[in-house]
Design a protein that fits this description.
Layout: E1 5-9, H1 13-19, H2 24-44, E2 49-56, H3 57-62, H4 65-84, E3 88-92, H5 104-108, E4 121-128, E5 150-153, E6 172-175, H6 185-197
Parallel strand pairs: 1-2, 1-5, 2-4, 3-4, 5-6
Helix pairs in contact: 1-2, 2-4
Length: 204
């Protein structure tokens, strides 16, 4: 079965920043650059859907203001770059309870799904929790987004943190020890080879 929907939990930006003795803003900017490389990789391999973990409700409540701002700026940078490529962008999550520093208006202006000929749609999970997609008002349930085929989590954490539970029931899941800013398209090639080696029965 071909890979149509890739999802990524890009963990390790803060730890990478600490290891390299740079500020947290630089860590998340490096992470955004890696995600842009993955977008290019998806376009090359004609993968029509890419989902990314941006910010959970737990992050919103527990992370310091400095880090919320770093995530905000890195995410806006990333979304503006893929908007220039005329790709579809769909941001999913609870917009009613965003962090006071999040600037929802700026993000809403980049939410665009009417580019019918776009080769890729990016689904960004913002201020989400494990229970969001159990409700009928969660956006991606109402769009033609397929179930996730391959989920990759970097940063040496082997958990899912409530990420898209209804869409990953039959996903192949690959945990990697690399910090996200160290991730390369070569790692993506290896992940694709690993995915293709799996026998996917999906309950059969």
């Amino acid at each position: 079965m071909g890979l149509r929907h890739l999802a990524i939990i890009p963990d390790g930006n803060r730890r990478w920043a600490k290891q390299h003795r740079v500020n947290v803003m630089a860590g998340y900017k490096a992470g955004a650059d890696r995600m842009l490389e993955v977008v290019g990789w998806c376009l090359k391999h004609r993968i029509p859907h890419l989902s990314g973990f941006i910010l959970s409700k737990d992050n919103t409540r527990k992370r310091p203001d400095e880090e919320i701002v770093a995530i905000r700026e890195a995410t806006l940078y990333f979304l503006r770059e893929i908007d220039r490529l005329k790709l579809n962008i769909r941001l999913c999550g609870d917009v009613r309870d965003q962090h006071r520093l999040w600037n929802q208006e700026a993000f809403s202006s980049l939410d665009c799904t009417d580019r019918r000929k776009a080769p890729l749609t990016f689904w960004g999970m913002v201020n989400h929790s494990r229970t969001d997609d159990l409700g009928f008002d969660f956006p991606y349930q109402h769009w033609a987004v397929p179930d996730v085929d391959l989920l990759i989590r970097t940063g040496d954490r082997q958990r899912l943190d409530g990420f898209m539970p209804m869409k990953i029931a039959y996903s192949e899941i690959l945990f990697l020890s690399k910090m996200w800013p160290n991730f390369t398209v070569r790692d993506m090639d290896k992940a694709l080879a690993w995915y293709r080696s799996r026998k996917r029965t999906q309950g059969e």
